[in-house]
Amino acid sequence: MSARERLAELGISLAAPAAPAGAYLPAVRTGNLIFTAGQVPFVDGKLPATGKVGAEVSAEDAKGYARICAINALSAVASLVSIDDVVRVVKVVGFVASADGFTGQSGVINGASELLAEVFGESGKHARSAVGMAELPLGSPVEVEIVVEVRD
Question: What is the pTM of this model?
Fold first, then answer.
């Protein structure tokens, strides 16, 4: 099954990436790699929640937001190539706006990792960093960037 078919099966459609909020591009290709900018969980141009995970935002909700971030990152990739041209997900970096004492960043970023494995199967498994932050842009509770390898 192709990535496009898996997305359809999951009820996910890839929209155009959100307009950059600064002087950067949503994604850049160099050779066979595409690097995305950090993606926050915009839904229809708005954040579904703001605040720190472990305080204003639950870890479970944040995991769902990380999934949305991964979908938004795939939209950025799809702005450059067909999603079916992705050979593998190489790296995921996830940032979690964390309340004092919150140490569940890995569990939150699993939302992105699990989505990528659902879409790409074994090729969706990747290296990863999950980092706690004091603040994220626009008060977002989570931000995710990905690196994918694509066909020539």
Answer: 0.97
Instruction: Report helix, strand or coil for 28.
Output: strand
Query: 41-96, pLDDT tens digit by residue?
Result: 999 999 999 999 999 999 999 999 999 999 999 999 999 999 999 999 999 999 99
Q: At what angle do helices 105-120 and 59-78 cross, to 10 degrees?
A: 40
What's the total number of domains in the chain?
Answer: 1
CATH number at residue 63: 3.30.1330.40
> What end-to-end distance do the CA atoms of the chain give, in Å?
20
Containing structural domain, residue 127: 3-17+25-150
Is the pLDDT reported for residue 21 higher than 90?
no
Strand-strand pairing, 86-97 and 142-150: antiparallel
**What CA–CA distance (Å, rounded) separates 74 from 150?**
12
Residue with tokens 């935002």: 57
